[in-house]
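dumping the sequnces here before i forget
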Amino acid sequence: MKKALSLLLVGAMTLSLAACGNSSDSAATEENTAAESAGTESEADGEAAFKIGGIGPITGGAAIYGTAVQGGIQIAVDEINEAGGINGYQIAYQFQDDEHDAEKAINAYNTLKDWGMQALVGTTTSAPCIAVVEETHNDNMFQITPSGTAVECVQYDNAFRMCFSDPTQGTESAKYIGENGMAENEKVAVIYDSSDVYSTGIYEAFAAEAENQPFEIVSVEAFTADSKTDFSVQVQKSKDSGADLLFMPFYYTEAALVLAECNKQGYEPVFFGCDGMDGILGVENFDVALAEGLTFLAPFVAKSEDEMVQNFVSKYEAAYGETPNQFAADAYDSVYVVKAALEAAGATPDMSVSDLCDAMVEAMSSVTYDGVTGKSITWSADGEPNKAPLVVQVVNGEYTEL
Amino acid sequence: MIGFISYLVNGISLGSVYAIIALGYTMVYGIAKMLNFAHGDVIMIGAFVVFSTVSGAGLPPVVGVLISVVACTLLGMAIERIAYKPLRKASKLAVLITAIGVSYFLQNVALLIYGANTKSFTSVVSIEPITLADGAMVISGETIVTVIACIIIMIGLMTFMKYSKAGRAMLAVSEDSGAAQLMGVNVNSTIAMTFAIGSALAAIAGVLLCSSYPSLTPYTGSMPGIKAFVAAVFGGIGSIPGAFIGGILLGVIEILGKAYISSQLADAIVFAVLIIVLLVKPTGLLGKQIQEKV
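..and the predicted 3d for all of it:
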């Protein structure tokens, strides 16, 4: 009897564990069914559909980025399908979870390939993107990453990027600080995550550009993924260095801790972040006063009065009940860029993946795109977008475009 | 000099959190002879309960902490009953894997309920910080409360183990569970009680951890949990004062290493010290030397 009971309990636990692990998949399956039904619909008209895949973490620590990308793509796909599709063909869309893990991203990619994906909007985060781009390069599949910022994400001809690369962001930040004299005594302290390619990439470019700027970096402190609970030492050292500006190239989760620690120690420099800070005001229960005056470069501000932005923001809010962040915006734009490339290439869904890729890559050089993350964006052959960054500052507890 | 003292205070504060978590690890290991890797996640659950009750429902912090302690105690006993008790006769490895499974289970449950977005935890401590040397050194209310709580818990536990009947039953089970059973000690309920106490401590640790470092995600407990496990091994796993000393030392070494050697190598330094200690004293600083008689 006891044995039976324990077996039952073990069974129940395994099931619930499996349920947890699969929660993402079930979400993906829903998308899948939705996408398939869309696919069948258009096939019923005797037409094929363009199959676009998306990859990103929708579970795990980076889930906020993947879910944003998933939602952003969905909105663009729905809009395009409603408006008559691309070259008269509908889009079928499927999204797979990679848990911000390179190996799982490859699995996700293979799943999508089995489904018949013809172009990839992804992956969301840098490390998995670097792994997946090797695969798309081998298969010669068109890839545009909404938010993979590492340089290597677009190292091949078939890959493009919607966001700024890490070095661009570091260089632009240093220029902005220097040109606007944001550090009053021209002393800057830096804290960065040495275990993260994103943070390190921005920091290195920032440090290189700082040589050409009037300010001086007086303190550089690092932390790693395994010790990012306590920032007392890093903050105290920055404080002791007498810097008037603290540059923080990392994500908002850690930034919330650093800001709280600065407040605790009574250190009040000018805070300058990076686009990973987008979302800090959305941290539940966060004391927004701590972030007052925080400035960073970003591609997208949800409060902008631009008509396209407002259209996107209201649709996203209606669908998901929250304000879209830049990841959602980048993903939304990425789908439209795919559309622009397909249209410029005059492509049809019956073309092979490789032919499609060649045609789209060629078309990309002529694409000029106006979207929610920038206007008149063009792409150079190395896959980098040319667009101007926006300067965002937290004023009275809200993101404000400067 | 002010700088050094200030780093030291921060180290003791961080170390006290490690120590409270390590006490939970060490008790369970000492008595049930198993590594409860889900301990770090019970901490996270404890913090989330306080987050929901205090920041969400607006209850006073003291009530929130009490609810959290009760919830974690029940959770700890439930985990023991459902996941570990059926495996009491199974190999150590099976129990260890189950513990890791429970850890993932709790993380994913929290992920389902609260989502992946970071929550900002409002400190439950409302003591004003002490400012010394014209603002060059600030000791926060959280630091004071954490250190005092840690000392009280350690002394309380040692008194409990030494003088109460239940505590002595725990000692007996930890020395030889077979013999203890023959002497009329109810081994199962003793182990259940160990989990209850360990989990209640986890709730307190969670509250203090998140009050000092106010960022809460479903993964908040895992890294401090692992560090605290190291602290428990460092001090001699199974020993209550050992966990206390191990935790404090670990925190101080981590902070001083960051401050004076390299902020990137902090963890490498911590683990290098651990290796050296274990090479010299394989049972940890206060670990018991058990001699096998042939």
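Chain B touches chain A through 47 residues (CB under 8 Å).
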